[in-house]
């Protein structure tokens, strides 16, 4: 009954609510970035922890959430949301900062001291990103480059078999809320700065992310798990221009390893024993799939036994935060987020479909 009531209240605003759908990006005040500054990585405590451990961690009990009184939703990509319900939800999920216990902070800094130093991308690529693209936006936990540098550094350290530049450029052809840092007409320039293998992964990344978050791709792979050894190709459409693209079977597994790394940056701070949030659900499902199929090549560890019960310190002590947590069950959040993804793709003329082709039956094409 509660779910039905909540759905009736929120479904009209589903495309805008985007419940835990994607990170919020704050709009920066400048139009361009300095390539030299882009090359410098500034990792917060939680990112340092993930880089040092090679895994995400449940930090319930060692952090205390504080209300960010200066948070302004109108400085994010959700500034145009006018629904009071949608704005309330987004603000409640984003308007907090965390303070770490001193001992936990000391251990993380000590472990991070042994992490290899950040290695930036080459100067021509950074200059292209700074002057010909629009990366002058901010991630919910800092500027956009902090997020990109974290993903790049994680791949450099824990997934050396693949190019870390895929993580640096994973959103250049579009993020989930139809923000496009690079216009489609500059694709030839981008292609001249990277390898063909890197381009294949980068152009597929926004599509595969949407296919995962909309609940289309992982169930399709799971349904055909017994015949994955005969998988030859996966066809899909590029988000930015709806052009048909494809990945070989090997490229798909590499892509899914990149997606797993990317999801680490959006997991809840803690309380995973009680929290089946949107990103955590997809992370666990993808981790299980890669592990079962022996395709987990990136160093991403996860131990369900380390999950902790939720503590009061994981959110500010306000009635608003308590109400949102109690009112919106994980199943409803997942349903609304999947609807929102489909809505975003439809708005830009992107066909959110996928085809799987198998060598044992060339005529057998599995489609969503």
Written account of the structure:
With 368 residues, the chain is α+β, with helices and mostly antiparallel strands. It is 45% helix and 11% strand. The protein has helices at 2-10, 14-17, 35-38, 45-53, 84-94, 102-112, 123-131, 144-158, 165-168, 187-193, 196-213, 217-223, 249-264, 278-292, 319-327, 330-347; strands spanning 25-27, 63-67, 96-100, 137-139, 142-143, 231-237, 244-248, 355-358, 361-367. The strands form three sheets. A four-stranded antiparallel β-sheet has the order 7-6-8-9. A three-stranded antiparallel β-sheet has the order 1-4-5. It has a two-stranded antiparallel ribbon with strand order 2-3. The longest helix has 18 residues, at 196-213.
What is the CA-based Rg, rounded? 20 Å
Strand content: 5-15%
Report the mean per-residue pLDDT as an integer: 85
Strand order of the largest sheet: 7-6-8-9
Low-pLDDT ranges: 1-31
Describe the sheet with the most strands. 4 strands, antiparallel
Q: What is the overall shape?
A: globular
């Amino acid at each position: 009954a509660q779910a039905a009531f909540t759905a009736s209240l929120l479904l009209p605003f589903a495309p805008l609510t985007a419940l835990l759908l994607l990170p919020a990006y704050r709009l920066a005040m400048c139009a361009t970035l300095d390539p030299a500054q882009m090359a410098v990585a500034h990792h917060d405590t939680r990112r340092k922890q993930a880089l040092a451990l090679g895994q995400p961690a449940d930090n319930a009990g060692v952090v205390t959430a504080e209300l960010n009184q200066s948070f302004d939703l109108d400085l994010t990509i959700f500034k145009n949301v006018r629904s009071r319900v949608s704005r309330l939800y987004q603000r409640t999920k984003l308007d907090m900062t965390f303070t770490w216990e001193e001992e936990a902070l000391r251990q993380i800094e000590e472990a991070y001291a042994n992490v290899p130093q950040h290695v930036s991308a080459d100067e021509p690529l950074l200059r292209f990103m700074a002057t010909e693209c629009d990366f002058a936006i901010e991630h919910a936990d800092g500027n956009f480059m902090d997020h990109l540098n974290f993903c790049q550094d994680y791949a450099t350290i824990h997934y050396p078999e693949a190019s870390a530049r895929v993580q640096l450029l994973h959103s250049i052809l579009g993020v989930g809320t139809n923000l496009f840092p690079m216009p489609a007409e500059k694709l030839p320039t981008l292609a001249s700065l990277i390898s063909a293998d890197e381009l294949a992964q980068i152009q597929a990344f926004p599509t595969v992310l949407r296919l995962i978050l909309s609940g289309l791709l992982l169930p399709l792979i799971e349904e055909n798990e017994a015949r994955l050894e005969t998988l030859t190709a996966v066809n899909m459409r590029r988000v930015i221009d709806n052009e048909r693209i494809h990945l070989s079977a090997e490229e798909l597994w590499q892509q899914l390893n990149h997606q797993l790394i990317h999801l680490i940056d959006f997991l809840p701070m803690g309380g995973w024993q009680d929290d089946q949030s949107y990103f955590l659900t997809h992370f666990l499902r993808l981790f299980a799939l890669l592990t079962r199929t022996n395709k987990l090549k990136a160093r991403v560890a996860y131990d369900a036994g380390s999950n902790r019960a939720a503590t009061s310190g994981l959110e500010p002590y306000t009635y608003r935060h308590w109400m949102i947590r109690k009112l919106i069950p994980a199943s409803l959040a997942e349903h609304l987020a999947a609807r929102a993804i489909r809505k975003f793709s439809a708005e830009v003329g992107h066909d959110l479909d996928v085809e799987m082709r198998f060598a044992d039956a060339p005529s057998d094409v599995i489609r969503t």
